[in-house]
Amino acid sequence: MKHLFRGALLAAAVAAAPLGAAYAEINELKIIAPAAPGGGWDQTARSIQHVLQTDKLVQNVQVLNVPGAGGTIGLAQFVNGSKGDPNVMIVGGYVMVGAIITNKSPVNLSMVTPIARLTGEYEAIAVPANSPLKSLADLVAALKADPQKVSWAGGSAGGTDHITAGLFTKAIGVDPRKVNYIAFSGGGESLASILGGKVTVGISSLSEYDAQAKAGKLRILGVSSAARLPEAPDVPTFKESGVDVEIQNWRMIAAAPGITAEQKQALSATIDKMVKSKAWTDMLAQKGWANTYLSGEAFDAQLAKDIAATQTILKDIGLAQ
Amino acid sequence: MDTFAALSQGLMVALQPMNLLFAFVGVMLGTAVGVLPGIGPALTVALLLPITFKLDPAGSLIMFAGIYYGGMYGGSTASILLNTPGESSSIVTALEGNKMARAGRGGPALATAAIGSFVAGTIATIGLALVAPTVVDLAISFGPEDYFALMVLAFTTVSAAFGSSVTRGLTSLFIGLALGLIGIDLQSGQARLSFGVPDLLDGVEVTTLAVALFAIGETLSVVAAGARADEIIEPVKGSVFMNKEDWKRSWKPWLRGTFLGFPIGAMPAGGAEIPTFLSYALEKRLCRKPDEFGNGAIEGVAGPEAANNAAAAGVLVPLLTLGLPTSATAAIMLAGFQQYGMNPGPLLFATNPDLVWGLIASLFIANGMLLVLNLPLVGLWVRLLAIPRPWLYGGILVFATLGTLGANPSLVELGMLLVFGLLGYVLRRYDYPIAPVVVGLILGPLAEQQLRRALAISVGDPVVLFQSPVALTLYALSALALFGPLLFYVITGRKAPVGGDED
């Protein structure tokens, strides 16, 4: 009976939410950016802070940086220290999914309350302009001939770039353990190694390669999105080149574990309002981030799918048991 | 001359009163955060980004440039006066600079650092304006095998920082190398020596180790010595400013430091630390009074300080010409560019010339402003050393702790600061040099990663290491650095006049 009553109340809240009156106002919010200032998660947290405050959705928003270990240190602090606190949120992303597995983190994303996926970037494979590889088909042929001869430059081992390289190799029927992956610590360094022809291909988010491609120094062979991207309309997707891989390096916001359904509802409604505001749209455009907003059960399902797929591929690459 | 027209146009932009104000705010902020260990220019610019969002692009980029150069200045001030390196690139400065400060020569040390930074910054900025496209081609052609050879050169010359005994120096170096292994291995993604502590997964922060070994270790030594300490710190002995001999001994190291710093800074994996090591080693070899090294040789401040500032300008070469951010600060500046809808990259010079040249011009302005601000302050800064010892060291402790915790508010970080502080005390107590520990922590992981990258690309064939002419040249230089003095001895039958104090 009680349960039913709460359900009815929730339904009422959902129905009333667009009117903006039925959920509690949030006056204060602390957002944990589980990374050092300047990186993607930090910028996401600060963009959220900016929009929530300028649009007066939340009076006072603070960003707290807790850097380290692919976000798992910030996540651990959040899970252990914010239980039931409706005024704290954490920013995270796909990189965290992999880091939790490879770092054998004691906390994971099932211990937080995911609210929404906000933005995302797609992965791109690039070669220097003078490379003999002209298309993804050439790359596939080279990988099938000898996967070890194809060196891939990307970010740290086990990160999104490495996972994408593994998925790509597996999808064309080559052993993903044979991926000759060269990890670089910064985008600049890996880009230099691609431009200098030190490695066969580079793999990273499209934005890393875009400027070089426009200047004719790099050729982008393919992107990991479902459909072609507006910023690179001439670049085919992996899928249309016959490689069944689709991956998005997304960023999300999550609430603390153990909050009530009403509290979750209030936070979701606030984020929903933010995403639909002009200030947020402008912010995304200015940063060059795609709007890949996904919330509620659809996001929960996508998250579960991503976690399962990541677990499998990290095992296949040999980075996780 | 197209370049000069563009540059003077840029100077016009930078010299507008409002932009001068931005430059002023930038250098003041930069100096302040440079002094604080742990908190650097990257963090400051990152925190300012959302605030500057609404400002005029030229103004905020000029302010960022001021913060960037200011941070380098501030780092050296803390190194010299307090023996607390504020930035990893000013660690070497602490070696001789602090010795000078204790002997009442803090004034000349600060002055040679400030003027050397100005000279190097100016020459390197001119270099940035004139030869950026040529330098960047060279920098890009460096592969992992060449970087590895550069690290080998750095390792072989680092013995200059060993002090009196090679065995003790090597012991310290190996402690640093071991510390460098802590954390997630970049190539395999596996944790090493982290003992299940998640905070150790990212490894040991260089500034934490440096501040602990230098500042906290020293504070503990002073406390342990108690009333028995007979060393007296003299704030000022002789002139506060540089005398004629100081000038004579400084100008060549400034230039040599610049020519080491700029190209290495321009390399995507070069950084600002390696040129300071090389410069220190080079000056020690070339110095006519090598015994002064370790006791406050002005060359040991002038060279490395010039080198780190030239490297700071060098970092902007790949950023502006290719859009490659090769340091944390450069990465943030890139974010700053993107905030204004500019895409740094090969086309930036073509699409936004006034901004690029405005930025380069503002580097000149920031540099000049730092000199004007800092030189008159030298007299004031050195008075810091007149503070009674308990207060001074109490202050240093607070300062070191705040800086480290400000950058990363974590208990484990604080614990590391204390443990490494104790290590610093023990090393001092038993007369082991501390600089090689930090050098090992910086160079070890770099050398390892580059070696493994080179071997992975060649699928395990070690021949790749000796194929490139650049690498071979660097190995030849390493051999010269190692065996040169010995050869000199064999040929001339007398002891090498330089660098031969190891025995």
TrEMBL record, chain A:
SUPFAM superfamilies: Periplasmic binding protein-like II (SSF53850). Pfam families: TctC (PF03401). InterPro entries: BUG, Bug_dom1. It comes from the Bacteria. The keyword rRNA-binding does not apply. CDD domains: PBP2_Bug_TTT. Residues 1-24 form the signal peptide. Keywords: Signal. PANTHER family: TRICARBOXYLATE-BINDING PROTEIN, UPF0065 PROTEIN YFLP. Belongs to the UPF0065 (bug) family. This is Tricarboxylic transport membrane protein. It comes from Ancylobacter polymorphus.
TrEMBL record, chain B:
InterPro entries: DUF112_TM (IPR002823). Residues 20-438 form the DUF112 domain. The keyword Phosphoprotein does not apply. It comes from the Bacteria. The chain crosses the membrane at residues 20-49, 61-82, 109-135, 147-163, 169-186, 315-335, 355-379, 391-412, 469-491. The keyword Ribosomal protein does not apply. Pfam families: TctA (PF01970). Keywords: Membrane, Transmembrane, Transmembrane helix. This is Tricarboxylic transport membrane protein.
